Amino acid sequence: MKGQEWYQADDVAAEYDDKRFSRGGRLIDRREKEAVLDALGPLEDKRVLEVACGTGRFTVMLAERGADIVGMDISAAMLEEGRQKAQAAGVSDTLEFMRGDAARLPFPDDHFDSVVAMRFFHLADTPKSFLAELRRVSNDQVFFDTFNRFSTRSIYNWALPMGSRLYSRYEVDSLLEKSNLELVNAEHDFVFPYGFYRQIPDDVASAFRSLDTKLLSVPGLDRLASVSYWDTRV
């Protein structure tokens, strides 16, 4: 099953968080949330759009911190999980979940202060057009992540039946140039791919994560990172 088809399957949504963010996956969840919070900065009254919001991991977190946020996803089942999460967190009245296509965002130009797209571009069939649309509705910031082509992720990706799109630095730079976005910061992380962390217990994952960060602290070895976070401005 291809990645987009798998993601939209109704039975995937109910188990999505447990499969990806339990065990060693908790490290991934924490790191991704840290990256989003660091990039967006102060959130009080900031207008934010999260594209491909899934089960609302980031949407709910940002609403709890004062953002005026809309979470959009193509999967109705994922959005229902997000609504339940928002209700449990007590923020269901302060955010909006809506179903939609990232290729045709139903918002005017420059409508949001920040647009966030996490775990999205590895499934994007036309990344150039998607990124241009994210840029269109943002008046300041577009923040997204990619899985990297020349990394251990390529081995993991080869073994995945659904596959995912991997990006080189040249490809990301080209996408940014064509979308008229300026890169202001990039962070590269996780030598060991996400799938590896999800298969091991917390304590074992912590040991590998320590090794991971030590490797990436060596000058030049960030090229081994399997994921990158891109903070851009319009």
From TrEMBL:
EC code(s) of this entry: 2.1.1.-
GO biological-process terms attached to the record: methylation
Keyword Methyltransferase among UniProt keywords: yes
Keywords linked to the UniProt accession: Methyltransferase, Transferase
Stretches assigned to the Methyltransferase domain: 48-138
Molecular functions (GO terms): methyltransferase activity
Name of this chain's protein: Class I SAM-dependent methyltransferase
